[in-house]
Each structure stands twice: as structure tokens, then as C-alpha cells.
Amino acid sequence: MTTLTLKEKFKRVAEEWSSAATGSRLHAKSPEDVVITMAIRSPMCKAKKGGYKDMRSDELLTSMFKATLGQIQIDPALIEDICVGTVLPTRAPYEARAAALAAGIPETTPVQTINRLCSSGLMAVTTISNQIRAGQIEIGLAVGVESMTRNPDMGTGYSEEIMAHPVAKDCAQPMGWTSENVAEDFNISREDMDKLAALSFQRASRAQKDGTFATEIVPLEALRVDPATGKRTTVVISEDDGIRHGTTAEALGKIKSAFPQWGAGKTTGGNASQVTDGAAAVLLMTRRKAEELGLKILAKHVTTAVAGLAPRIMGIGPSIAIPMVFKKAGITKDDVDLFEINEAFASMYVYCVNKLDLDIEKVNVNGGAIALGHPLGTTGARQIATGLNALERRGGKVLVTSMCIGLGMGAAAVFVRD
Questions:
Q1: Which ranges of the sequence are coiled-coil (predicted)?
Q2: Within 10 A of 130 (CB to CB), how many other CB atoms are there?
């Protein structure tokens, strides 16, 4: 009989663990799991003319905090940290802290902000999850918010050194340019782009009409300002207002190019994400704490992956980040029941679905950003609310969310429904 060294024993145990059934590991429950007990979103409303057009970004965030307090089912004093993902506000930390206090969150609960552009909502969730996993806190709130209506001036440009660098200078280019680069470099047809864009509208239209979205949406109080008198009133917004019912690929094919100066000009206002205002919130804690408080557990957060790539083709980020998160979680695409991939532009959406060979019946089953909009800081958290809602309705277990990120990055995360 061969006697194994301690090192060899550890190696054998590791090999046995890694070769065990993925399902048993993925779906195993531990008191230390980081779980989600609430995932909600506001209605998504068109920037500058939709439901939140008269609101400042801090007012939108305050309203979302208030709505969240009505949903968390715990004393807000138990929240040990809040992370707000947001991109555009020039005073983001000030707005986040002040909005939390104004909404009724105790001054004993600290607030931080995070900005990784289009993934900021997911980064907020991941930050809170990591704090819980490290034992720093037991309960935390992640929020994603963006008022694209209040998009500030983005500054005066970059330094000469940056603009002289062959790759760094691409960070100064508009996102529409990157969409056309993806379409051009990877031979994505306008027809395929319009086809998936139409599917997004059709699925979102169905989900709105049959009440699917009502489960994930929390109505928000919105301000109205009379342009003649300046009088301020409030209204309640309860539905997305950017979904274009009855959209077809044929109709989208008639829309003119938004960026005819680049590539073949395949990107249009109909096959790109809408410019939208909105917010979302996710409450996380240990499984032990959730059970102690008697809360329903929606899902556990397994892991998140972030990838870097050339800024000029930033849209393909999910095609890199998703395989990375598969590896981290020890799964394959066959283990995934639903995907939420942010539809920043149809060019990247078509590319990622094709590159990963995904079943479109598992991807954005209730529509995506082309139909609902892409408030930059919100999307990463909104996808969790939308994805978990869809997962529960379909009786699925595993959700993967992902998005491309401006400046050349991609992110993806794995969640398992309880």
C-alpha cells in the first residue's frame, strides 16, 4: 500500500472536490453564503421627457431610498453599509450620503459610492457582498442610480500624453464609435442587429402587459414642475415608459444611422440602448442572518468577474467576462438557466450571443436595455432584479448577469436562486 504525503492527500481531496458534480457545489447552502433578500427596481423612464425629467439626480436617489425602506422588511438601523453605484453626478458621495439621510436611513449607517461606468450597479452589489464575505458586515444595501437627464458636462478633454498613446486615446471616443467598430470588425449585419433589437421590444412589451414587471418594480414618487409657474407637485410612476409596443425588425430597418460618420453606420436609435433614468436596489446579508430575521431568501451571490479589453471594441466585454465567471464558479453555459446581458448596442449583443453560442431563449427573456433603457449606474443592479424575477417565474436556478463597460471592460456575475 502506497503511503501518501500530506501534500498529496490535499491534492487528492482538491481533485475529488473539483470533479464532483457541479450542481451539488453550486446549490449547496451554507450559513456563510451571501444571499439576497430583496432585489427591486424603479420604473425605467426616458431621459429629458419621461417620468423623472423634472428631478435632480439626488432627488431620484432620495425617492429610491424611500421606496427601498418600504421593501426591506428590517429595521434600517441594521444596515451596516450602503454602496451606491453611479456614474455621472459630479458630487456623487455628497448626494448619496445626503439622500440616504433625507430618506430616513439612520446617520449611523455609512455610505460609499462606486463608479465603474456601466457595471457600477453590479460593482455596488459585489462590494457589499465582498464586505459580508470578509466578515466586515452582516447586512448591506447596494443601490444603482442614474439620471441621464442630468448628464453633466464631461470635461474639457485629455492630456497630450494620453492623446498621443495609440490605445489610451481611444478612451476619448464616443461609445457609438465603439459600436460601429464591433459591427465592422466582426461583420455584424444591420439585419441581425435590428432583429435582436425588435425581439427586445417585443419581450419587454409582453412582460409589461402580462404584469411580469410588476413583481420587480417598486413605484416611485416623482416630482413635476409646471414650466409656467414653477409649481412643484408629485406623481407616482409605476411603469416603464420607453417600451415601444408593436416594434418589428422591418420598422427598425427604416431608421437612419445614428453614426453615419463611422464604419457602415449600422447603429441607430432603434437598435441601441435608450437614454433613460432609473434606479435599483439589492439587500444582501449572510444566510445565517437572513434566517435569524425570518426573511425570504431570493438567491445567493456566487462570484463576480471583471475583464479588460481594447477600448475601441469595449462592447464585446461580456464575451470575455462570462467565460471568466464560469471558470470562477466552476460551471458551463449548460448549467445556466437565464442570462441577462446588457444591450448597450445591438452590435455587441449580437456578437456576444453568437460568440458564446447562447440559446437566445435563455437570454434577456423579458427584454433588455434596448427596450428598457440603460441608466449607467443602475443597470448592474436592475439586471439582478429583472433576472431573479424571471428565474423564479420559470422555476430556474442559475442566473448570469453581464455587461460591457465603457473604456474597454466587461463584467459578469453568477447568482443561484434558493
A1: none
A2: 14
381: closest CA among 281, 238, 276?
281
* Known catalytic residue at 245: no
CB of 385 within 8 A of CB of 280? yes
* Three cell numbers written together for 242: 420607453
228 φ, ψ to 5°? -85, -40
Q: Could you say which of 45, 83, 301, 374 is catalytic? A: 374
Q: Tell me if residue 45 is catalytic.
A: no
Entry pTM: 0.93
Q: Dump pLDDT digits (tens) for 297-341.
A: 999 999 999 999 999 999 999 999 999 999 999 999 999 999 999
Sign of CA dihedral 376, 377, 383, 385: negative
Task: Give dist(CA 95, CA 379) in Å, integer.
Answer: 19
Residues 6+ apart with CB under 8 A from 46: 53, 241, 242, 274, 275, 276, 277, 373
Distances, alpha carbon 190 to alpha carbons 199, 209, 323, in Å: 14, 29, 27
45, 83, 352, 404: the active-site residue: 404
Q: Which helix (H) or strand (E) holds 232?
A: strand 232-237
Q: State pLDDT tens for residues 353-378.
A: 999 999 999 999 999 999 999 999 99
Q: Which of 45, 118, 301, 352 is an active site residue?
A: 118
DSSP state of 302: E
Which grid cell is 133? 464575505
| Three cell numbers, residue 98 | 445626503
Query: Is the dihedral angle over the CA atoms 247, 279, 173, 347 positive or is it negative?
Result: negative
Between the alpha carbon of residue 280 and those of residues 23, 255, 315, 379, the distances in Å are 30, 31, 23, 8
118 tagged catalytic: yes
